[in-house]
Amino acid sequence: MKLHVVGIHGIWQGNTTARVLSADWASALAKGLRTHHGPSCPVPPLTVAYYGDLFRTPSKHLGAVPDTAGVGEEVPFTDEEAEFVLDTLAGYAPLPGDGPDEPHQATDTLGLGLPYVPPPVARALVAVDQRIGRNAGQRLLRCIRQVYRYLHHDIGARIREQVRGEFHRPGPRLVVAHSLGSVIAFDMLTRADIGVGPDGLTTLVTCGSPLAWPTVRHSLGQSGPLRLADGIDWLNLYAPGDIVAQSRGLATVAPAVRDIRVSNGVAEPHSALRYLRHKALADAMVKGATHWPWRAS
Q1: Average pLDDT for the chain
Q2: How far apart are the C-alpha atoms of 207 and 186, rounded to whole Å?
Q3: Contact between residue 10 and residue 272 where contact means Cβ atoms under 8 Å apart
Q4: Has residue 105 got a pLDDT over 70?
Q5: DSSP class of residue 6?
Q6: What is the DSSP string of 145-203?
Q7: Which residue in 140, 147, 144, 180 sits closest to 163, CA to CA?
Q8: CA–CA gap between residue 18 and residue 28 (Å, rounded)
Q9: Residue 101 and residue 88: Cα distance in Å, rounded?
Q10: Beta-carbon neighbour count of residue 1 at 10 Å?
């Protein structure tokens, strides 16, 4: 059996399909393999385990499934979600005080156009913009809200069920998980009711991962170092300017991880396709393919 690459995508993929994502990811992986290992390097098959459709805001037409998970951007914050967002943003910039003697920062420059954002969250977004750059807070907010919904709504169980088929496919496989996908992959690998699944998973590659966020680790019930089952090699790619990964790796929270710093440019440092073209991932695929003596069957 040949090595199969399983992808788990990140946030805001509700307007695409598994077929389109798989084609885009396969093209990026092929470019990386042939750039770093020669034009004749074989490219393993790849399938993206797709769950983006679960984050679509359902149609209001008759017969539409109710949005019980509250996944649309326009859904108002609960107190619990606001607390999660504020605690996460605190890792990026000191949050402004909220007392009567504290000066409140102007929020009219955010450009959010989102009246549902609670004032404390809006002020925290301004603080992030001032520390990192304009619109950084807004970009983070979109990611944080989907991460929160995966961790704290029943949509998490639906995502795991939807991903499970590819995740547990039989035979040798390498999992590449981007952004929120890395949280999903780690969660599934460490759940007693899901776990590693059939024999064959040897490598997890995470890219642009928010697993270093204390809010994520707490929500996953991880109070100590992050660890995977014995026998799984964990490679993590992170890029300067990737605000989701906080421009740093995971070694401080996952001692066994192999962190590799890559350059994704300045325009889209969090882009999955940019991560997929790097030599470190190409090397991991070649190593994974040659590890299995029955790969030619």
Answers
A1: 87
A2: 12
A3: yes
A4: no
A5: E
A6: HHHHHHHHSTHHHHHHHHHHHHHT-SSSEEEEEETHHHHHHHHHHH-TTT-S-STTEEE
A7: 180
A8: 15
A9: 24
A10: 13
Cβ-proximal residues to 144 (8 Å cutoff; 6+ apart), any chain: 84, 85, 88, 89
- pLDDT band of 115, cuts 50, 70, 90: low
Report the predicted TM-score, pTM, of the whole model to 2 decimal places. 0.89
Lookup: tokens for 271: 């882009």
Which amino acid does the sequence have at 10?
G
Token couple for 168: 């547990």
- How many CB atoms sit inside 10 A of residue 153's CB? 16
DSSP structural state of residue 259: E
Torsion-angle region of residue 260: left (phi > 0), alpha (psi -120 to 50) or beta?
beta
Which residues fall within 8 angstroms of residue 124, CB to CB, at 6 or more apart? 85, 86, 89, 90, 93, 95, 96, 137
- What pLDDT is recorded for position 62? 38
| CA proximity to 127, closest of 246, 244, 119 | 119
Exposed/middle/buried for 296, CB within 10 Å: 0-12, 13-18, 19+?
Answer: exposed
The answer to whether 251 touches 6, Cβ cutoff 8 Å, is no
Contacts of 68 (CB under 8 A, 6+ apart): 154
| Partners of residue 243 on adjacent β-strands | none
Query: Are the CB atoms for 183 and 206 separated by under 8 Å?
Result: no
Kindly report the backbone phi and psi dihedral angles of residue 189, in degrees, each rounded to the nearest multiple of 5, phi listed first.
-70, -20
- Token pair, residue 86, equals 């504020």
Q: Which residues pair with 241 in a beta bridge?
A: none
- pLDDT over threshold 70, residue 209: yes
For residue 14, the model assigns a pLDDT of 81
Helix 136-152 vs helix 180-190: crossing angle, to nearest 10: 20
- The residue type found at 70 is G
Q: What is the spatial distance between Cα 271 and Cα 276, in angstroms, rounded to a whole number?
A: 9
Residue identified by tokens 């074989």 is 42
